[in-house]
Amino acid sequence: MWGFIVFYGLDWVATVPPTVALCRQHFGLEDSGIVFGWCFASHMVGAGVGASFAGWVRTTQGSYDHAWLFAAALCFAAAVGALLIPRRGRYSEEQTPVAAAAG
C-alpha cells in the first residue's frame, strides 16, 4: 500500500508544473494564471462528472465494467487527438511568448 501511495502522490503532483509551464508558454505571464485556473476547474468538474457517471453505471448495471470501457475509449480518443496536434518548431529563448511578455 505504501508503494501505491508514494507512486500516486508523485504522479499527481508531477502534472502541475508542466501544466503551469504550458499555460505560461502559450498564453503569456499575464493570462497564464487565469488559464491555469480554468484548466484546474474543468479538471475538477470532469472528475466529479466522471465519478457520478461511474456510480450511476454501477447502480444500474451492477458492475463498473461499462464505466471502465467508456473511460478507456475516452483515453484512446484523447491520445489520438493529442497525436493529431500539429507540431511547431522549437522556440529559441528570445522568441518564447514568456520572454516577449517579460520584455
Automatic annotation (TrEMBL):
Secretion signal span: none
UniProt xrefs under InterPro entries: MFS_trans_sf
Segments crossing the lipid bilayer: 6-23, 35-55, 67-85
Keywords: Membrane, Transmembrane, Transmembrane helix
Name of protein: MFS transporter
